[in-house]
From TrEMBL:
Keyword field: Cell membrane, Membrane, Transmembrane, Transmembrane helix
Record protein name field: ABC transporter permease
Highest taxon of the lineage: Bacteria
Transmembrane intervals: 12-30, 42-65, 85-105, 117-135, 158-179, 210-229, 264-284, 290-310
Gene source species: Nonomuraea salmonea
Major localization listed first in the record, in broad terms: membrane
Localisation per UniProt entry: Cell membrane
Pfam families membership: BPD_transp_2
UniProt xrefs under InterPro entries: ABC_transp_permease
Tagged with keyword Hydrolase: no
Bilayer topology annotation: Multi-pass membrane protein
UniProt entry tagged with the keyword Lipoprotein: no
């Protein structure tokens, strides 16, 4: 195995390796870490962020960014809880429809006008947050989940793991196939690698960009709806900074912020890595949750530096 192959392997699967190392260290250091209950807790709590990270992976590989997913997550939860009074289908379809339309509008603006995704989705973040506050009377009204079937979707369990975990796994597998085995996935990579060259090759740049932002919006809304089902209410104070967690997980998982490289496996590993770090901090006992943000930030900085060094190593070989 030459230097270039080693660099590519570390870039694509480094998060999985670090995740395995942390699990081993945590298991040896803390008796309560390597338990079924703790593992289930990490997986369940990470499943909602993982759904958002799947959509974010497509966006970042295409060379974009989506800062609106945290607000869409909260809006999806509020709309799902509100719609649950009309039954399971409305509770699911209402947040998907609204969040999908937001993603569509953002995608159209970005793809057709050439505006920076950062600016467009930042506007989306603020606008969606304002819409959520308007629906919930400035956060004073918390809608409760009234449909039992919808609540079961978030609270039911199989083999000790809640339904959202299995749904997340299914979505991740589907996204892997879509990204690696379809023409759409290859178009996403091509646009992120070199948009001008992709356009000259006949890649439908505008359509592909719109699709990835619609997908990101739909998945953020779905994650919010499932979280509302789990909590039995549309909590309005959640989702602040969630977009940064999703971006961090995707980048830690090996997806380049410049676009053109990355994968679903790494993003899911990045999400689990953040969850394991939080669990290890909880095991220590005398550290606050704020320390997890410090560790995650430092880890993200190291990953970005490592990615840059590995990219230089690949260009030199």
């Amino acid at each position: 195995m030459n230097r270039e192959q080693v660099s590519r392997l570390l870039q694509q699967h480094g998060a999985v390796m670090v995740l395995g190392l942390l699990v081993v260290v945590g298991s040896l250091a803390f008796d309560s870490f390597a338990t079924t209950a703790n593992a289930a807790s990490v997986v369940v709590s990470s499943s909602f962020l993982a759904i958002i990270a799947v959509g974010m992976t497509f966006v970042i590989i295409s060379g974009g960014i989506d800062l609106s997913v945290g607000s869409l997550f909260v809006l999806g939860g509020v709309l799902a809880a509100y719609g649950s009074q009309y039954g399971l289908l409305v509770a699911l379809l209402l947040p998907l429809a609204v969040c999908g339309v937001v993603g569509l509008l953002q995608g159209l603006v970005i793809a057709r006008t050439g505006m920076a995704p950062f600016i467009v989705t930042l506007a989306g973040l603020l606008g969606v947050r304002g819409l959520m506050l308007a629906i919930s009377d400035e956060g004073a009204t918390t809608y409760l989940v009234e449909d039992r079937a919808f609540a079961t979707l978030g609270q039911g369990e199989i083999l000790g793991l809640s339904y959202p975990v299995y749904l997340t796994a299914a979505l991740a597998l589907l996204a892997m196939v879509l990204l690696q085995r379809t023409g759409f996935g290859q178009n996403v990579y091509a646009i992120g690698g070199n948009e001008q060259a992709a356009a000259l090759m006949g890649v439908p740049v505008v359509r592909t960009k719109v699709y990835v932002y619609v997908m990101s919006g739909l998945l953020a809304g779905l994650a919010g709806a499932l979280n509302a089902a789990r909590l039995s209410s549309g909590v309005t104070i959640l989702g602040i900074g969630l977009e940064l967690d999703a971006i961090a997980a995707v980048v830690i998982g090996g997806t380049l912020l410049t676009g053109g490289a990355g994968g679903i496996t790494g993003s899911v590993a990045g999400v689990l890595l953040l969850g394991v770090i939080q669990s290890l901090i909880n095991q220590v006992g005398n550290l606050t949750s704020a320390f997890q943000q410090v560790v995650s930030g430092l880890f993200l900085a190291l990953v970005v530096v490592a990615q840059r060094l590995l990219s230089k190593a690949q260009r030199l070989t």
